[in-house]
Design goal:
four-stranded antiparallel sheet; Alpha-Beta Plaits; DUF1697 domain-containing protein; DUF1697; alpha+beta
Length: 190
Amino acid sequence: MAIYIALLRGINVGGKNIIKMAELRKTLEQIGLLRVQTYIQSGNVLFEADADEESLRKRIESEIDSVFHISLAVILRTAEELNLTAANCPYTADEISEAESMSDAESLYVAFLPKEPSKESLARLEVFQTENDQLRAKGRELYLLYRHSVLKSKLANNLPKLDVPATVRNWKTLSKLVALANEMAASSQR
């Protein structure tokens, strides 16, 4: 059994694609996922399953489409992969602290992708980097550091230029998901 984190793209944003977390948990339990729990309303689901990433992703996307009539991308990571994402942040503590001192909102984000983006699509996105908006790609993740508002960032607004879907989480959410996944792992070893 592996612990997975499903990151749903584009639900409960701006009054669109509304899914209640209790209904989502019930739906995912009905397709055989175990110990399903959600974190906040933006589509973060932790569960256990004994299946590979691709088949799980397809089952979850299909079931959400069938039950909620919402077609969306689901990005999956194992607990181990999520821990590595957090541990491998390419920005220094000083860079993050500086960015946070210049912003009145979150500064550090991670865009999760189902697969590595092509070099061409990454290059299309990199042209939107500035001194204030930076990105560093590491495999299936893009680490994004904003020194001002993410809402006004050309880099953030151009993430759709990638050739793969992306779903973005701020560092606080990522850290909480890592903690929840680690708690889940520890409780299954008891």
